[in-house]
């Protein structure tokens, strides 16, 4: 992919340099032709007026209307050559810029789709294999109560992972289909507590602190939508940080605006990636080397839901390390 990108840049630069040189060559040729035409025409004029019958001297010749018309014609053609040369070069540059930009976008999209296929295959394969193993063990072996419970808990966790994945895919598809939030009064505190409880099942070492006032007034929002927002932000804070790193989730409401802040002490997000992470299927790094599970849909879903509520999401660095996501809606 990187190779196609550099070949594209090379080709664009080559075409641009070639066309600019070609334009410059034609402009010089036209310029010379214009000057030659002027010289020949003024010589003809000189012969005509300077003949024995007329006897007009050079100063008088330069003042004649015909000579002045020739000078003006030469100037006009020079201006035309210059203006058209500049105009064509600008058009060419702009055209190449547009082509280059859309080709780059296509390449990025192709890379994201490839990453998505790789990650989704992995995301489906691992829990399915684990569930199958669990069922085979249950089928073939006599187990004690304690072992049975452990195995069932693992199986349920894998099934929940599959369910979340399918729900994310469905939600992403629905969001593209002009999704509108169904607003209702919501207890954000209890939603956040549920999300945290769900996460603790999958990540028992997660160290999440909720800072939500008990008297927080109900927020007007879409319940499944807001749940997906909190769930995804908390899950990312857990996934992209060392095990047990502190995560803080704070919610407040001022002047009717709900403000949700999720801060982690994780690996952080480079400034250059802070916009791209909200794109569909975008994941930082390369799928071949990446360890953390995911599909690149989480933040895309979050942003779409927040925007559908007329809100906004921002991402900044945490101090001394990590990331802070703030949602206002
Ligand atoms: P997924 O987690 O499935 O990869 P997301 O859309 O939720 O997809 O996130 C996109 C990318 O943004 C992730 O792959 C990860 O690299 C980065 N990211 C998201 N949240 C965080 C975070 N809290 N800390 C560090 N990186 C993050």
Quick summary of this structure?
The protein has helices at residues 2-49, 58-63, 65-140, 145-176, 188-202, 223-239, 298-308, and strands spanning 184-186, 207-211, 219-221, 246-254, 257-264, 312-317, 323-328. By secondary structure, it is of the alpha+beta class. Strands 2-4-5-7-6 form a five-stranded mixed β-sheet, covered by helices on one side. The chain has a two-stranded antiparallel ribbon with strand order 1-3.
Describe the overall structure:
With 329 residues, this protein is α+β, with helices and mostly antiparallel strands. The chain has two domains: 2-113, no CATH class; 184-328, Heat Shock Protein 90 (2-Layer Sandwich), CATH 3.30.565.10. It is 62% helix and 12% strand. It is built from seven helices and seven strands; from the N terminus they run ααααβαββαββαββ. It has helices at 2-49, 58-63, 65-140, 145-176, 188-202, 223-239, 298-308, and strands at residues 184-186, 207-211, 219-221, 246-254, 257-264, 312-317, 323-328. The strands form two sheets. A five-stranded mixed beta sheet has the order 2-4-5-7-6, covered by helices on one side. The protein has a two-stranded antiparallel ribbon with strand order 1-3. Strand 6 and strand 7 form a beta hairpin. Helix 4 packs across helix 7 and helix 6 (223-239) runs antiparallel to helix 7. It starts with a helix and ends with a strand. The model has no long low-confidence stretch (mean pLDDT 88). The structure holds adenosine-5'-diphosphate (ADP). Adenosine-5'-diphosphate (ADP) binds at residues 232, 236-237, 240, 264, 266-269, 277, 282-284, 294-300, 323.
């Amino acid at each position: 992919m990187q190779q196609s990108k550099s070949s594209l840049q090379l080709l664009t630069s080559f075409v641009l340099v070639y066309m600019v040189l070609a334009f410059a060559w034609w402009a010089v040729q036209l310029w010379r032709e214009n000057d030659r035409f002027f010289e020949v025409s003024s010589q003809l004029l000189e012969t005509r007026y300077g003949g024995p019958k007329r006897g007009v001297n050079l100063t008088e010749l330069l003042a004649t209307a015909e000579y002045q018309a020739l000078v003006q014609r030469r100037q006009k053609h020079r201006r035309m050559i210059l203006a058209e040369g500049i105009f064509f070069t600008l058009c060419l540059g702009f055209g190449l810029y547009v082509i280059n930009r859309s080709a780059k976008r296509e390449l990025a999209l192709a890379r994201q789709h490839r990453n998505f296929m790789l990650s989704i295959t992995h995301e489906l394969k691992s829990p399915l294999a684990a569930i199958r193993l669990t069922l085979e063990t249950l089928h073939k072996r006599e187990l004690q109560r304690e072992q049975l419970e452990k195995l069932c808990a693992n199986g349920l966790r894998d099934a929940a992972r599959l369910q979340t994945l399918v729900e994310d895919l469905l939600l992403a598809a629905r969001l593209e289909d002009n999704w509108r939030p169904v607003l209702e009064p919501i207890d954000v505190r209890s939603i956040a507590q549920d999300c945290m409880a769900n996460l603790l099942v999958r990540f028992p070492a997660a160290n999440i602190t909720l800072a939500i006032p008990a008297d927080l007034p109900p927020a007007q929002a879409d319940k499944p939508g807001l749940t997906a927002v909190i769930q995804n932000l908390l899950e990312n804070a857990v996934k992209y940080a060392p095990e047990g790193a502190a995560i803080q989730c704070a919610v407040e409401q001022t002047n009717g605006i709900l403000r949700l802040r999720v801060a982690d002490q994780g690996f952080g997000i480079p400034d250059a990636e802070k916009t791209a992470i909200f794109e569909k299927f975008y994941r930082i790094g390369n799928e071949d080397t990446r360890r953390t599970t995911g599909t690149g849909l989480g933040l895309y879903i979050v942003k779409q839901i927040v925007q559908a509520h007329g809100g906004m999401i921002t991402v900044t660095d945490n101090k001394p390390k990590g990331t802070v996501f703030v949602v206002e809606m």
